[in-house]
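User: Please fill in residues for this 180-position structure.
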């Protein structure tokens, strides 16, 4: 069971991991694999290095070469101020449609590791947003005629939101135990 995180979410995840401490690509991949457990086994290491180069080019991370005695020199990456600002903004995003459970889990782990956010507070904020959306969907479904296609579609959205809320309860339980 492999994992591919594409585009901006991977950049945000790598930036958040760098917020904890400067790291080289292999360290970042190992931390991601540890956080993801079996889901991280198929994580493409090359994806980390491509992401790091993009972050450096965008001015969100800076690399320095660290010499080693018995191995080739390593590039160690660290956040710039712009990178730290981007991580802080990402941790506050509530765009649930974009966030797959894996990405949200990584966001919580990155918040805890970097110290830039409280995973339980992030879960609570996301829960508030999903409850707002659920209430809106429930109001709208009541206005639909019985047996309508729109009503069926809205019922599916309601069921998805309810499942997501249950999963957030599990996240809150985990992170409450992890931070005490």
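Assistant: Residues filled in for all 180 positions:
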């Amino acid at each position: 069971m492999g994992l591919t995180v594409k585009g901006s979410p991977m950049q945000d995840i790598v930036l958040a991991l760098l917020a904890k401490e400067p790291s080289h690509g292999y360290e970042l991949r190992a931390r991601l694999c540890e956080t993801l457990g079996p889901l991280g086994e198929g994580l493409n290491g090359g994806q980390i290095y491509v992401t790091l180069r993009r972050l450096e080019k965008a001015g969100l991370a800076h690399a320095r070469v660290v010499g080693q005695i018995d191995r080739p020199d390593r590039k160690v990456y660290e956040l710039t101020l712009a990178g730290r600002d981007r991580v802080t903004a990402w941790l506050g995003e509530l765009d649930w449609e974009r966030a797959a459970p894996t990405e949200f889990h990584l966001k919580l782990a990155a918040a805890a590791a970097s110290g830039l956010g409280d995973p339980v507070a992030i879960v609570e904020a996301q829960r508030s947003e999903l409850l707002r959306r659920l209430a809106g969907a429930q109001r709208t479904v009541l206005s639909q005629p019985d047996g309508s296609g729109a009503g069926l579609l809205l019922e599916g959205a309601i069921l998805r939101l309810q499942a997501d809320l249950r999963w957030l309860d599990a996240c809150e339980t985990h992170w409450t135990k992890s931070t005490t």
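For context: The chain has two domains: 1-94, 118-180.
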